[in-house]
């Protein structure tokens, strides 16, 4: 079997991994807060979830616009991936 070379993670992939990790830790922190205090900061949860939702929508918009405009025109190998 041939070993396939892995492409390095792109910026958007790194951002989504960090966002996913943050959301996981935030959820765990809110569960712990609920068990300790019997309440959670609803406004904080709403703001964090809203900001992460906006980040997801913006990431999707960037990805879609790259696909529509054939993204990286400088590298012909990567341009073929979009066809």
Can you describe this structure in just a few lines?
This protein has 83 residues and is mainly α. The protein is built from three helices and no strands. Helix 1 runs antiparallel to helix 2 (42-68).
Task: Explain what the structure shows.
By secondary structure, the protein is mainly α. It has three helices and no strands. Helix 1 runs antiparallel to helix 2. The longest helix has 27 residues. The protein starts with 10 loop residues before the first helix and ends with a helix. The relative contact order is 0.08. The model has no long low-confidence stretch (mean pLDDT 86).
Write the layout of secondary structure elements.
Layout: H1 11-37, H2 42-68, H3 76-81
Helix pairs in contact: 1-2
Major sheet characteristics: none
- What distance separates the N and C termini? 28 Å
- Residue stretches low in confidence (pLDDT < 50, at least 5 long) are none
Question: Structural class, please?
Answer: mainly alpha
Question: How much of the polypeptide forms β-strand, as a percent range?
Answer: under 5%
Helix content: over 70%
Mean pLDDT across residues: 86
What characteristics describe this protein?
elongated, mainly alpha, 72% helix, 83 residues
């Amino acid at each position: 079997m041939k070993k396939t070379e892995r492409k390095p993670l792109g910026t958007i992939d790194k951002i989504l991994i960090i966002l996913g990790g943050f959301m996981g830790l935030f959820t765990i922190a809110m569960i712990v807060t609920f068990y300790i205090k019997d309440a959670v900061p609803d406004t904080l949860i709403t703001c964090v979830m809203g900001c992460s939702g906006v980040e997801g929508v913006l990431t999707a918009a960037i990805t879609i616009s790259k696909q529509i405009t054939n993204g990286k025109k400088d590298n012909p190998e990567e341009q073929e991936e979009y066809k």
